[in-house]
Structure formats: structure tokens, C-alpha cells
Amino acid sequence: MVEPAGPVDPADWSCPVPVGHREQVVLGHGGGGRLSAELLADVFLPALGNPLLGQLADSTVVAVGGERLAMSTDSFVVQPLFFPGGDIGSLAVHGTVNDLACSGAVPLHLTAAFVIEEGTAIEVLRRIAASMGEAARAAGVAIVAGDTKVVQRGQGDGVFITTAGVGRVRDGADVRPERAAAGDAVLLSGSIGRHGVAVMSVRDGLQFGSPVTSDSAPVHGLVAALFDAGVDVHVLRDPTRGGVAASLNEIATAANVGIVIGETEVPVDAAVRSACTLMGLDPLHVANEGRLLVFVAEADAERALAALRATAGGEGAVAIGTVVADHAGMVVGNTAIGGTRIIDMPLGELLPRIC
Amino acid sequence: MVEPAGPVDPADWSCPVPVGHREQVVLGHGGGGRLSAELLADVFLPALGNPLLGQLADSTVVAVGGERLAMSTDSFVVQPLFFPGGDIGSLAVHGTVNDLACSGAVPLHLTAAFVIEEGTAIEVLRRIAASMGEAARAAGVAIVAGDTKVVQRGQGDGVFITTAGVGRVRDGADVRPERAAAGDAVLLSGSIGRHGVAVMSVRDGLQFGSPVTSDSAPVHGLVAALFDAGVDVHVLRDPTRGGVAASLNEIATAANVGIVIGETEVPVDAAVRSACTLMGLDPLHVANEGRLLVFVAEADAERALAALRATAGGEGAVAIGTVVADHAGMVVGNTAIGGTRIIDMPLGELLPRIC
Asked: What domain count does chain B have?
């Protein structure tokens, strides 16, 4: 049972979010926010629990013989299947590659399982497969095993893809949320909110001035650059469902530390910002699929930023905050008008099926 | 492109099976038969192909550092979620455990990803999770990472589960379909067809005299018994979708050998046989979820049978046939009335969503 991180935020009152302890699954249970955490804590952990699953990281490090392996899985149900800047195929590769990379591992091998709705055009599958193959080659991973199932019309929706993967954890690497420590710098590899807004824009037929493309991309190159620069990386996270806000809250809770970010330091592209304003969304809650949050000791921060900025996909890397010993488990933002606010875990689902 | 293994079998004429080269996905593409193989060969292999995926085994052996790992994945979309002898949760564990075991590996770690339809009762998830946990503990594996996604009502169907897994291949083991060689004995761990008939019986509300329960079970203990007995195991396969017929045809094709089985040697429980007669099904085409096909040199056959029979789940193990140099790529059955017939790969789908 995950408790709210602080006092109730009036911003929560603005839309009819689902409440906890329901007897049926609601869309919010898939949103990566508090309801997702509740489902995990109430239903899955008691039944499946073991110390490794209990870590609740995006990927888990296991020992097999003499090797430390990272393992991860994600299902992708994004709608529509094709969106500006990507599609479900490349997204399914990036998602698992990124989860493995965020354990400090070199991603190696992926599996891919498809649940296909009867009537789906073979040509659609062909495009998705081509995109997956391209994304896998670009990320240096091989898809080594797979499965396809077909369900009747109306019992699925086009294509769902589940990828799982294995990576080899770098020698000496110790990357996990619990390592966030007071004094750490919080770095972000680039502007936020592009994936969520790109998917929304095609789904709702909205136009937000300039078109927004998803940031869907592998982040393993950024992670490699940090290790190659000799940085002692404490925590890595790709802020997907629930956005930067959810990732920071999970890390603050896991490490029992506070996090303070300067909201004006967080880069948000103009088109994303205006889309979020229009829809009443906080960009900190919007999903990213190619961004990286990095926690390092303050002394390593400049070197880490330089390494990120010198690497494709990290050109816009910035420091956005610091870890503090105060207000453990809570994330606080310094706002543009000089105040502070609690940056809470999103409760449910901003937008169903964003990934 | 998989060619028919032999001349057209008039038995194929008896129902309106889908034909190949369609422009849309049909249910038969998920059946584990020729249409599935065609989808793989036409769509997925060209895009995702690499030598490992091209092996087309149920699981793939990869090298990571100094270790040989088996990796496998399967999606489970069985309907109904609960059936006599099991449920989607235990099935999802057994399916991946069995695929790993069939590479000669000791199954170690699983991931589990859930795609849940909005409105599904939390209590249903709780029962499924409990069953998965129990199955995992019984099979000696840990579920170390997971994911949940929620889709809107009518865009899924209850719960789909995708498991993936990693196992450590036993030292010296070399288990793969290409090792089937003329002279090998073909062993089967028990009676066939129970899983398929059990699922059909609850779905269609049919009654077949005595109730049939699924054989859903892990086979890793049977595999361990073979290795512990010092048997040089050539090929292992759990005959799931498409049944024993599909598995034998895949092995005959992969190894470019012929296989002859004595149809009267294949154990079929009376209730399964009468259900198959009623529905016009060949038990050799019906799915199993806890059976094991074993190919060993003739000299090892008695020892292997003894090891299987002494192990839980293998009490009914029998020799059902031999590998021959004749009619490469083809499986032939000696029938009860003294004739022979070609045992062909099923084309499409006997029954959608059997696993």
C-alpha cells in the first residue's frame, strides 16, 4: 500500500480520478502511478513475491553462474500503432533496452511475443517487424526468441507486443534507486513530454502549432558514455509512464531521501508546453521514451553532464535538482514564481495506452 | 516458407481451413501449424532474423560471458482463464519453464507481463497471481520482473500473460532438433490431448463422459531425471499447440530425417479419445502442456524410459517410434489396422486460444 507522499494537492481535485481499493481493474491501474503501485503491492507481490521482484526497479539484477545479468519485461499496448517519431515495434525494443541499460547493464538479447487481433493486416505486421528489426540493430541487441498468438476480432486491439531482455551488468556497476544519497545531483538527458504529446496528437486529432515527434530512442549509448567517463553512477531511470514525477517519487521512496528540483531547469519544448497547457497536463507527468534521469555525486556532476552532452540523444542534458536529507520520500519543485510545490506521484492514468 | 510435408491428406478436406498468403491475420495464424510457420517465415524472420532466431526452437541458447543461457518467451491468451486442472497463471509458468527445460537448461528466472482488460475483477487477478506464485515455487523458479498494462473494455479479453525466462544450460548438454538421427528412439512421457480437451470441455459446455483435466505441469523434473541418469539427450520438445504431430514434423524438418511412430503405441486416455471422436479431432493434433517428447540413441532408450517412469509426471512414459533415414522431413504413422498414413503438420487452428 503506497501512501500519498504528502498533503493532498488541490491539483488532484481537478479531474475525476479513480479511487483506490476498487474491486475491478480501471484504466488508472495501468498508468504507472499510485494505482499501479497499489495493484502491485496488493495483488502481485504477495503472491509472486521474492526479494528480487520486491526491488520494483524497471529491471532486476540476478546472478547466473559467474555472471550478473539484468532482466526486464514490458508489454506495449500503445494506440495508435504508428505515431510521429515511432511505432509500437521500435517502442517495444527501446523500452526493454532502456530498462536494461538503467540497471547499468549492456543490453544483449531480447525476446518478443505478439498477441495479434484477427483481421489485422499482414502489411501492418510487416511494418512493425521491420521497425523492430531496425531498432534492435541500432541498439546492438538481437531478438533471439519469439511467439505469436492470435485472438478473435474484438478480443484484442491490433497488436500487443511484449518484449523481455537480458543484459550483462558492467563490472563494478552498482546502479539502483536505493543509492540516491543526500548531496547527489539529479541530471536529465533532454527535454521532456514529447512521447506522450506525440501519441495524444495523433489519437485525438489535435494540432498543437508545430508537430511534436516522440523521443522514442535507446538510451544505452548515454549510459555507456557515463561509465566510459569513469562516473560512479548511483541511479538511472528512464521516465516513461507517469513521467519524471513518477520516477523521482519512486526513487525518493526507495532511498528514503528528499528530492528538490528547479522546475524552470526542466527543459520542455515550446510545442509540448503549449499542448500540455491546452490539455491541463503537467509535463512532469507526461511519458518519455528516450530520456534518462541520472543521479551522481555532486563531484561527478560536471563530468557526467559533459559525457551526456557529447553523446547522441544527450545534447540537451542539464542538471535539474539535488537530493536532500529533508522531507524523505517527497519530491519538491521550486516554481517559476519563487514558490515551492509538492510534485506528487500521478494517481492514475493521464492517457490510456501511451506505451 | 514451410512446404507441406507430403501429398495432400484427404483428412484436410473435411473442414474449411484457411489458406495461406492471406492479407489479413486469421485465427489459424496463431495455431502453431503451417500458417504460424508461414507468418514467421514471411513476416518476422526477414525483419528480425539472426542466426539465433532462425533456429526456431521453443527456446534459444545464447552465450553471456562464460555462461550458456537458454531464453524463451510465450504469450498466453487461453480462454476461459480457469479450466479443469489449471488456469492461465500456472499455464504461463509451465509454458516457459518447459520451453527452457527443452533446451537442456535448468530454468531459473522468469518475467511476467500482464495485459488486463478494464473491468476485470481484482479477485480474478488475485487468483491468477496466487496460482502463478505456487507454480513458480513448485518449479523452483523466481518471477523476478514484471509489468502491467490496462486496455479499455472490449480491446482485450480478461487477462493476457506473457512470460519470458532464462535458464542455465547443463554442462555438456547439446539438445536441439537437428540432433535427431536415424536410429534414435522417440519417447513420450505420458498420454496426450488432455490440455486441449479440458479447455474445450469448459468452453463449449460439452460433457465427455468422465471429466478430463489438463495435463498442465512443469517437465523440468523429467528432464533433470534424464540427465541425472547419464542419458545423451538428443532432442526434447513439449508438444503444445499443434500437438505431437506439429512437434514431430518440426523436428523431422529441422533434422532432415523421417520419423515413424506406432499410432497404437501413443497413449490416449479413454475420455480424451471419445471427446476427439465426437469432435472429429486427431489426438495427435491436440495441445498438451505437461508432456515431453524425448529423442535418444536406441542404446539409451531403456535407461531413459526408466528414468522418466521413476519421476513424477513420467509414470506413463513409452516408446512411440523411431527416427529413420527414409522420407526425410516426413512423419509416418503405422495405424491400428496395419496400414500407414502421413501424419501431417496441422494447417491452422483446431481451437483458438488453447494456451
From this structure: 2
Please name the residues between 43 and 102 in chain A that touch chain B, using a CB distance below 8 Å. Answer: 43-44, 46-50, 52-53, 59-60, 62, 64-67, 69, 71-77
Report the alpha-carbon distance of residue A75 to residue A60 in Å, rounded: 16
Q: ipTM value, please give it.
A: 0.91
For testing contact with chain B, the best of A93, A108, A155, A349 (most B CBs within 10 A)? A155
Task: For chain B, report the end-to-end CA distance as a whole number of angstroms.
Answer: 24
Q: Report d(CA A166, CA A276) in Å as an integer.
A: 36
Residue A156 in contact with partner chain B when CB distance is under 8 A? yes
In tens, the pLDDT along A6-35 reads 444 433 433 434 445 679 999 889 887 888
Per residue of chain B (355 residues), give pLDDT as tens.
Answer: 333 344 444 334 334 344 456 799 998 898 878 888 888 888 998 888 777 776 656 789 999 988 899 999 999 999 999 999 999 999 999 999 999 999 999 999 999 999 999 999 999 999 999 999 999 999 999 999 999 999 999 999 999 999 999 999 999 999 999 999 999 999 999 999 999 999 988 886 676 667 899 999 999 999 999 999 999 999 999 999 999 999 999 999 999 999 999 999 999 999 999 999 988 899 999 999 999 999 999 999 999 999 999 999 999 999 999 999 999 999 999 998 999 999 998 877 677 888 9
Q: Are A281 and A350 in contact (CB under 8 A)?
A: yes
Are the CB atoms for B241 and B287 separated by under 8 Å? yes
- The residues near B124 (Cβ < 8 Å, ≥ 6 apart) are B81, B158, B159
The shortest CB-CB distance from A151 to any of B50, B77, B119 is to B77
Burial of A277 (0-12, 13-18, 19+ CB in 10 A): exposed
Does residue A248 share a domain with residue A188? Answer: yes
Q: Do B115 and A147 touch (CB under 8 A)?
A: no
Please name the residues between 209 and 228 in chain B that touch chain A, using a CB distance below 8 Å: none
Alpha helices in chain A (DSSP H): 34-39, 45-48, 88-101, 122-139, 194-203, 220-228, 243-255, 270-279, 301-309
Q: Chain centroid to CA B258: how far?
A: 20
Q: Let me know the angle formed at the C-alpha of A93 by A91 and A97, rounded to the nearest 5 degrees.
A: 115
Answer yes or no: are the C-beta atoms of A241 and A186 closer than 8 Å: no
Signed CA dihedral, B212, B216, B217, B220: sign only: positive
Last residue of a domain, one of B146, B173, B200: B173
Task: Print the domain residue range for A205.
Answer: 1-56+176-355
CATH number at residue A75: 3.30.1330.10
Last residue within a domain, chosen from A173, A203, A228: A173
C-alpha cell, A143: 531478438
Q: Which residues of A256-265 are buried (b: 16+ CB within 10 A; e: fewer)?
A: ebbbbbbbee
End-to-end CA distance of chain A: 25
CATH of the domain at B315: 3.90.650.10
